[in-house]
Specification:
Elements: H1 3-17, H2 22-30, H3 35-61, H4 65-83
Helix pairs in contact: 1-3, 2-3
Amino acid sequence: MSLTAAVATFLAVLPAELPDKTILACLILSSRYRPAVVFSGAAAAFLAQVILGVAAGGALSLLPHHVVEAAAAGAFVIGAVLLW
């Protein structure tokens, strides 16, 4: 796992992800707890998510290319059928 990739991903996606549904939870929790503590907790949880994503991506890169392509194609087909 690349620490540089994890940090870069975290810093790039954090501003876009926090206003998502997380903001509602942060607003509610901030009414009871200190906002800095709530934000730190949300940022730490997001960091854990990014680290897991980078680790999973690194593990997928070790698989043969055609296996990953077949799995991705299957996932897209299943998603298309469900959406249809």
